[in-house]
Specification:
One of its GO terms (molecular function) is 5'-3' exonuclease activity. With 656 residues, the protein is an alpha/beta fold. The protein has 23 helices and 21 strands.
Amino acid sequence: MLKEWKLYDTVPESAAFARQLGITEMAAGILWHRGLTDIDSAERFLHPEKQPFHDPFLLKDMDKAVARIKQAIEGEERIMVYGDYDVDGMSATSLLVHNLKALGAKVSFHIPDRVKEGYGFNLPALQQIAAKGVTLLVSVDCGIASVDDVAAMKGKLDIIVTDHHLPGDTLPDALAVVNPHRADCAYPDKELCGAGVAFKLCQALWRELEDEDYAQDLELVALGTVADIVPLTGENRRIVKEGLAAMQDSAFAGVRALVRVAGIQDKAINAGHVGFQLAPRLNAAGRIGSGEKGVRLLLAENKEEAENLAMELDMLNSQRQAIEQEILKLAEDQLAGKDPANLPAIVVAGENWNPGVIGIVASRLVDRYYKPAIVLSIQEDGVCKGSCRSIEGLHMYEALKKCSSHIIQFGGHAQAAGLSVAQPELDAFREAFEQVAAATLSEDDYIPKVKVEFELAPEDITFELVDELALFEPYGMGNPKPLFGCRGIRAMGAAAIGSQKQHLRFQVGRTSAPINALYWNKSEYAGIVNAEAIDMVYSPAVNEWQGRRSLQCMVDTLGPADGEKVFPEREQLVEIYRFLYAIQQQEESIPYTAAELTLSFCQRGHHISLYTMSTGLRIFQELGLLRLDLEENRYYLPKATGRMELEHSPTYRRHR
């Protein structure tokens, strides 16, 4: 999928800024691109470990929460921590339970079942908890929207809500509501996740009960912070930086076991390892099993228990991946006859699709088609529960609001949301949502963008640059990995590598001192990279192998150089169509990718670039002259019905 470069503007102030900070102009420019334009904020960003944490009592109602918990500990009351089934909720639950036990509390925890109880408070569960003799319940990562449930338990169970989700118009009538997003809360850092808010509660408790400054257990807080994709700025930056370092030799047997089962025990753990290897294993418990297993793992007190639970979560994650692939295939089967290229948005639904996995499937569809995607599971009671993912340009929550007459309930934010739709309303909802997407998104919005810090030739990369960029870690939401671009380069020796030959490696830079470039899961472009001039977006890195260090480029995006961006006019489109027709006559379908078709076309004696071929294929798809069989991953030409009306293609119109 071609991406459009968004190159940052030149920063005239970078030279002076760099001198003041003692860094290079390039690093100063990257800080400026992130909105860090004064010395104090830049210093805090570059050295988060030096910055003290904010006073936890600046959070509204923190004093009330601490006073009631102190009373419960001293009175030997039973306390229940009520969490959520995602990584943030599990981490927050484990953190608070661990610290309450250390402070002498009688404490247990409850993680709701995703399917049976759903997200947030569940009144029957609250009633059962009270019936067991629990007198104080403390929520983490949930509860802010449970106004009715809290009201129903008034006088039966004391409740403290700690959460980070946006409050509604009315706050729950709890003993305390600790949430930095409260309109009347003056806490300076609003972007804490659920585990982050629980961490502040632990800080306040240790100060009040033991007169100690608490800054431990940050590996648990970092798990939730990275997994919940909150901005890695402010306190979150220090939490994650120190928490990642603590994961290497964690005091928690469960964290150590999780790191081992993911196979990263000998690596410097970064946010990517958490997001793509540790968090999915924990999340698997809440998606297809019980979220309680994740908490039990994180709280495990011996190696044997931790290893067994980590292995169990690893197996659950494998099951989750298999279920995800099965649902993704079924979703793409539904799209096979709808020509996704012409859809303003994607809405698919299937009977009893696992509700814990459909959000991942929606993300996969966005990655493949770069269109807003909604995946719904049709339940036995006739209610369709869905997960939504969006692209830049469409605020998902606002889009759903415009379709609310067809929705039972919904909630979320700009890029992701959840909803429930009655099955008889499903078709009407799909039509309404597609209309909203079509009216909101322009043709340009459907072109993915990549932000490029600077243009930098691979031969100009240095070890010093890579070391300096390490100051910007950890990367994540609000602090993306810096990417650099180079235009019109000629690569050398492109070849497929990996156990399944799925990755692409080639060389760039000076022929006398070439630098390796790696592009994960893109081996099909080897022939194209060898044949064409390319534009490359990448991040510089250092490869260490057998004691030797070498520079390399980790490729984010490849695209055609300007000289290869030849738009196919009518005559060339006719040539491409005849070429495709000849293949179909020989093989009944067209079993090639765009890259393979490009090389095959060139082998017949006529040069064409991948850009030209891909554009032609897209135009044909938009005109209904070419279909993609997603199940077989093959193109085919339906029977032609007349002359090509090129103006009916949005791609062709945009070019004209």
